[in-house]
TrEMBL record:
Any one Pfam family match given in the protein's UniProt record, by short name: Amidase_2
Highest taxon, organism lineage: Bacteria
UniProt domain Peptidoglycan recognition protein family: residue ranges: 1-138
Protein name, entry field: N-acetylmuramoyl-L-alanine amidase
Amino acid sequence: MDIISRAEWGARAPESRSTVPWSKRTVFMGHYSAASATQTPRQIQDYHMRVRGWSDIGYNFLINSVTGDLYEGRGWTVLGAHCADHNTESIGVCVIGKDQAGRQDVSDAARRAFKWLYDEANDRKGKRLTLLGHRDRGSTECPGDEIYAWLKAGLPIVGQPPATQPKPPAGAKPAPGTPIAFPLPSGWYFGPVTGPDYSVSGKYGRTFRGRTDRAWLQEWASQLARRGWSVGKGRSWLGKAGNDGIYGPEYRALALAFQKDQHLDQDGLIGVNSWNAAYRNPVT
Ligand SMILES: [Zn+2]
């Protein structure tokens, strides 16, 4: 994912700055602007510098709640101005937009950008940062109920709602076998061992609905084989390790190829949409 740099969004130069070493960063903090999603980072910066009298835009990063565009604010290691008394330990990320009750204001694209930035922060830190909302450390509604609930749930990405059942194109064959329901809890997926708790890799041998994670992941790849994919040791997919049920680069490559084939979001993670597509979508 690309971070839109300060130069690209036309930032004013900061009046002063001080840096914070990664060793002091322990928190990844979510905010929202509580204003229109059409607000630009430059408008927010102008407000922070001219009206609030700060040295620069207050946040370390910003994400548009509709487009998911990700903007550099002060960046990773510059002291921010987003949560009084907690700017040293916290990387502050503002979602540009507001929370309107009863509707999803933060798009899937914006959620993916936020999650990507959080994963990137953890990689750079070499350790998981604590996810907090501004309201955890200040007397404020920020970041609004929608973002706050999502932060507290650990940023699950559930993907797009299932599209209307696609009509089989001429010559397409119905999916082989009997559909099996997605075995993991809502919002979970088969993914890397380095991911959060809801990223199920098969390495820990966890049990879901009476079978191990490994058996379920093998089941999914076997379904792809029934659909005609060349899967297994020495074959085109999972050729090195075979269908061992332990998520790694080979399963990721297979998931990406299948998602591309099925016009799904291409994230390489096997969540409910990639699972269901294997059992329900016609073979084209
Ligand atoms: Zn805030």
